[in-house]
Write a structure and sequence with these properties.
about 230 residues, alpha/beta, TIM Barrel, four-stranded parallel sheet, 4 strands, about 55% helix, tRNA-dHydroUridine_Synthase_C, EC 1.-.-.-
C-alpha cells in the first residue's frame, strides 16, 4: 500500500488505499485469513500532509493480524521528492507492538543509523539505495551490528558478478524478456561504478548476450583503471 505511481493509485490501489482505511482493512483481513504465513504491510505516512493516518492504519492492521509494518517516510503526494521524514515514523512505532521498519533515503550505514535513531524503528528497509550495490545491506549490517564486512567487488570481480546476474536473468525469463528486464539492473551497476556513457549506451541497447558481456568487462575494467 505504498506505491505512489499514478497508474497504480488511479486504480485505487497502492497508497491510494490510505484514503479509505475501511477498504484497506477489508483487503488486509482477506489476505490474513487466506494464508498460513505471516502477513506484513508496507505503506507511507499518509496520502498528503492533511491525511497522515499511518498510525491509525498500523493499529488496525495489527488488530487484523499483520505481523510487521514498514513505513516509507513520505506521503503519497510527495512521491520521492524532498527527504524522507524518519522522525514521523516514530508515531507508528508508538502506536503498535509489532515490529516497525523504517524506509526511505537509506543509502549507507550512516543514514541507516540515523533512520533508526529518529524513528525508533526495529529495522530498516533499503530500496533504491541498493540498486547497483547488492552488497550494501551487508555493509550496513557490518557497521551497525558487527557482522562480517563484505568484500566489495570491483574491476574483473564486479564484471563477473554482473555477468552472472545477467545470465541468471536470461535463464529465468528467457532471452527476449530477460534482455528487457535486465537493462535497468545493468544500468544501475554501471551508474554505481561511474561507467563510460558511450559503453553504457552500447550495453543497454545490444540484443546479443555475448556482446553485452564483452562490453561489461570492458566498461568495468576501465572504471577500475580510472579508480586506480
Amino acid at each position: 500500500m505504498g506505491c505512489p505511481a499514478r497508474k497504480v493509485t488511479n486504480g485505487y490501489s497502492g497508497s491510494a488505499l490510505m484514503k479509505d482505511l475501511d477498504h484497506a482493512l477489508s483487503l488486509i483481513e482477506a489476505v490474513v485469513g487466506a494464508v498460513k504465513v505471516p502477513v506484513t504491510l508496507k505503506t507511507r505516512l499518509g496520502w498528503d500532509d492533511d491525511l497522515l493516518n499511518a498510525p491509525e492504519l498500523a493499529r488496525r492492521a495489527e488488530a487484523a493480524g499483520v505481523a510487521m509494518i514498514t513505513i516509507h517516510g513520505r506521503t503519497r503526494c510527495q512521491f520521492y521528492t524532498g527527504m524522507a521524514d524518519w522522525a514521523a515514523i516514530r508515531a507508528v512505532k508508538e502506536a503498535v507492538t509489532i515490529p516497525v521498519i523504517a524506509n526511505g533515503d537509506i543509502t549507507d550505514a550512516a543514514t541507516a543509523a540515523e533512520a533508526l535513531r529518529l524513528s525508533g524503528a526495529d529495522g530498516v528497509m533499503v530500496g533504491r539505495g541498493v540498486q547497483g550495490r547488492p552488497w550494501l545491506l551487508a555493509q550496513i549490517a557490518a557497521a551497525l551490528y558487527g557482522t562480517e564486512e563484505p568484500v566489495v567487488p570491483c574491476g574483473a570481480d564486479l564484471a563477473d558478478l554482473v555477468i552472472e546476474h545477467h545470465t541468471m536473468m536470461l535463464e529465468f525469463y528467457g532471452v527476449d524478456l530477460g534482455l528487457r528486464t535486465a537493462r535497468k539492473h545493468l544500468g544501475w551497476y554501471l551508474d554505481a561504478a561511474a561507467g563510460d556513457m558511450a559503453l553504457r549506451h552500447a550495453i543497454l541497447t545490444s540484443t546479443a548476450p555475448r556482446e553485452i558481456h564483452r562490453l561489461i568487462r570492458r566498461a568495468l575494467r576501465e572504471t577500475a583503471r580510472v579508480a586506480a
